[in-house]
């Protein structure tokens, strides 16, 4: 079994890496990528086939761009009924971690990791925990059920490694979780943005003042929102706590963490090589251009991905004026390429609509449904609105999107709530 001899870093070392200029960083990435290629090519049939026309080692990161892309659909091996990913490097008996994607966009994908891979996961997570300044004195509540989703387990183990007190909440109800948070005087919560808002809703229904709790930080992921000002502000005002965003994917790893101002997500370029494909041209994106994020893992050997099309929509910014020179994604992950709707000639993303809706504090929950009508995309929005006044929402949507959109009020409590990834976008096209 060939693995990279992985060396863990201290926080001081991580800060030093963040301060490297682009030249230093690219040299380091070349070294790491060659280590990955050397480790995987002898046994990884998936990448043996994909990279057979390419030579290694590479001499510059420009050569990475000559390698073929990897798409999620390729990882779904049709001959494997169990659902194991197609990009495994080792025999199954070499893996110790089993996780599965949600399958919200198709067939679930089983993702496996070796012990060495898991060590790499813990290293990447330290950048996230650094951004939240999580310390051994913290009391942490994991506000989600523990299924086979890797994000929950990796966050749990990484926080344990920091020496903090960790409280899993398993199948507890929302009100029971709130009571646990209060009783143990938790200082940090891990959850999705949706669930942070749902807990605030339940607390209000039970006349519980969350702003008086001991919670100081809420670490969110799983869906856009933590870096969207209207959503972040709503969570922070409900809890009187700072929101810390981060991003990752089961098939890739925890690749992003929040900047100090909460305006976006840094790509962890010590562990991932990032590329950006312009949505408009299909070519490498310029600074600030709406683009798809493409990632290459620089340390995960058992389940590697090279030039992986994430489907995440982002706006990259290269700025060396601060303490971190990693590429910053303005506003975090803005949405998904496959969620884009064309409504009467206007490109609309669900996250753009959510940003507008979350600007109305009286809207408790919402749902978007898109459908075809005479070969045209149409959008319907349902809202639980305490004011029962859809007209003002229609007006704001028309101002900001340039579209007249159907908005309907529905009775309170009728729309679904979510603990994990929110499923507020129903595509019936």
Write a structural description:
The chain has about 425 residues and is an alpha/beta fold. Helix 5 crosses helix 6, helix 8 (about 195-205) packs parallel to helix 9 (about 230-240) and helix 10 (about 350-355) crosses helix 11. The protein has two domains: about 1-335, Rossmann fold (3-Layer(aba) Sandwich); about 340-425, GMP Synthetase, Chain A, domain 3 (2-Layer Sandwich). The strands form five sheets. A nine-stranded mixed beta sheet has the order 4-3-5-6-7-8-9-14-13, sandwiched between helices. It is about 30% helix and about 25% strand. The protein has helices at about 10-20, 20-40, 45-50, 70-75, 115-130, 150-160, 175-185, 195-205, 230-240, 350-355, 390-400, and strands spanning about 95-100, 110-115, 140, 165-170, 190, 215-220, 240-250, 255-260, 265, 270-280, 290-295, 310-315, 315, 330, 335, 340-345, 345-350, 365-375, 375-385, 405-410, 425. The mean pLDDT is about 90. Strand 3 (about 140), helix 6 (about 150-160) and strand 4 form a beta-alpha-beta unit. The chain is globular.
């Amino acid at each position: 079994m060939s693995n990279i001899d992985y060396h863990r870093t201290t926080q001081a070392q991580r800060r030093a890496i963040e301060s490297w200029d682009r030249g230093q960083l690219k040299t380091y990435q070349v070294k790491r990528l060659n280590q990955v290629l050397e480790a995987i090519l002898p046994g990884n049939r998936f990448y043996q086939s994909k990279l057979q026309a390419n030579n290694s080692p590479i001499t510059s990161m420009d050569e990475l761009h000559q390698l073929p892309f990897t798409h999620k659909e390729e990882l779904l091996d049709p001959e494997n009924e169990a659902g194991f990913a197609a990009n495994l490097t080792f025999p199954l008996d070499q893996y110790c971690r089993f996780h599965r994607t949600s399958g919200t966009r198709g067939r679930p994908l089983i993702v496996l990791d070796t012990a060495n891979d898991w060590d790499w996961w813990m290293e990447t997570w330290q950048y996230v925990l650094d951004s939240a300044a999580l310390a051994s004195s913290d009391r942490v509540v994991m506000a989600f059920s523990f299924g086979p989703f890797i994000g929950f387990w990796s966050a749990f183990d990484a926080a344990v490694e920091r020496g903090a007190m960790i409280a899993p909440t398993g199948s507890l109800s929302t009100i029971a979780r709130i009571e646990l948070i209060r009783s143990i005087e938790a200082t940090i919560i891990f959850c999705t943005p949706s669930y942070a808002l749902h807990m605030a809703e339940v607390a209000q229904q039970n006349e519980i003042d969350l702003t008086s709790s001991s919670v100081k930080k809420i670490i969110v992921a799983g869906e856009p929102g933590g870096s969207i000002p209207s959503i972040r502000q709503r969570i922070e005002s409900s809890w009187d706590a700072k929101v810390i965003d981060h991003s990752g994917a089961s098939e890739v790893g925890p690749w992003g963490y929040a900047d100090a101002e909460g305006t976006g997500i840094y790509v962890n370029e010590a562990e991932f090589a990032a590329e950006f494909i312009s949505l408009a041209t299909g070519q490498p994106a310029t600074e600030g251009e709406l683009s798809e994020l493409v990632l290459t893992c620089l340390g995960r050997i058992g389940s590697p991905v090279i030039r992986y099309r994430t489907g995440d929509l982002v706006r990259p910014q290269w700025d060396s004026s601060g303490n971190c020179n990693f590429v910053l994604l303005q506003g975090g992950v803005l949405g998904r390429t496959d969620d884009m709707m064309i409504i009467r000639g206007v490109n609309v993303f669900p996250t753009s609509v959510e940003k507008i809706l979350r600007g109305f504090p009286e809207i408790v929950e919402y749902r978007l449904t898109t459908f075809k009508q005479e070969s045209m995309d149409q959008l319907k929005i349902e809202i639980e609105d305490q004011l029962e006044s859809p007209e003002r929402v229609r007006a704001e949507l028309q101002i900001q999107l340039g579209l007249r959109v159907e908005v309907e009020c529905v009775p309170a409590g009728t729309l679904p709530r979510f603990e994990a990834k929110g499923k507020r976008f129903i595509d019936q096209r």
